[in-house]
Amino acid sequence: MTHRDRSLAVLVAVLWGLNFLAVRVGLDHFPPFFLAALRYLVLAVPVVLFVPRPGVPLRWLLGYGLGFGVAQFGLLFLAIEQGMPSGLASVVVQASAPFTVLLGALLLREQVTGRQLTGIGLAVLGMAVIAVDRARTAPLLPLVLTVLAALGWAVGNLASRQAKPQYPLRFALWMAVIPPLPLLALSAVMEGPATGWRALGSAFGPDGWPGLVALVYIAVLGSVVGSGIWTALLKRYPAGVVAPFSMLVPVVGMAGAWLALDERPTGWAVAGGVAVVAGVLLGTGWLPRFLRERTGGAAPRPPRVPEAGGGLPPGAQPAGSTGTSQETQRS
């Protein structure tokens, strides 16, 4: 990978990591389900008008949109609104990787290797450490919602892999057409039919500009720009070369939340987060390959990394992601 492309991969990780901060700012102005709906509505209109259809079976497009879009982002935004620190959320949502492996084994009869099981175990241990640490000082509901958001991302990963889109970015963009109506319906039922629309009207007032800036960041920089660069990199390099850069997303997310929002994770939370990320890297095969190369061993063929929405990782979005990390965003 050239220095320029490494810089672009790092830039995407920064854009997606800061996406979690933008979500936190946006939630100060919009209710969570409505904000998630707006995020996709901003994309859906130009997509329908200007982007050709991806040419995949409708059921896989629906599955990707409902899993990656509705379940992941609806629950993630709700979790952060309910008190989940945005930096910690950027780490926990990485659980989408082991969930993808497990669902692939259960639903698609994919083989799970011992290395993958070890990585899953390490990631689960990290999430358990985070859960125990949070249970001492805060309700567990936001953490549970974040884990369920990661599970929704994994469901979207499987739908994306079954779709096998010829044009991954086109497929990821058309996914944005699916979530607005379900999310608006959830917003009407759980937040009130007029609550979100009143918040949108207030956003155009003198004190509402931070919410609009956050929305533009989430929809444009976090989704279109980040996903476009990431997809271009995946066309030039194997997924096993590009995907590990998405592990910088939780690093940026936690560091940014610390500096901008004064979110100070405990030592146990940091340790649990490191275990989650290490488990993801181990399960994808990148960590063993890295260690062999640094100790003089032969460099094996890059591992196959399951795709999520055309290889878009976490927090990103369409944050998303390789099926091992990652869009939406992947927030």
Distance between the termini: 26 Å
Could you give the count of β-strands? 2
- Percent of residues in helical segments? over 70%
**Contiguous uncertain segments of 5+ residues:** 298-331
Run of helices and strands: HHHHHHHHHHHHHHHEE
Strand order in the largest sheet:
1-2
Q: Could you report the average pLDDT, rounded to the nearest whole number?
A: 82
Query: Which structural category do the helix and sheet elements fall into?
Result: mainly alpha
Please tell me what the overall shape is. Answer: globular
Please work out how many helical segments DSSP would assign: 15
**Rg over alpha carbons:** 18 Å
Helix-strand layout with pairing:
Elements: H1 3-27, H2 32-50, H3 58-81, H4 86-92, H5 96-108, H6 114-135, H7 141-163, H8 168-175, H9 180-190, H10 195-203, H11 209-236, H12 239-242, H13 248-261, H14 267-284, H15 286-294, E1 307-312, E2 321-322
Helix pairs in contact: 1-4, 1-11, 1-13, 2-3, 2-9, 2-11, 3-7, 4-13, 5-6, 5-7, 6-14
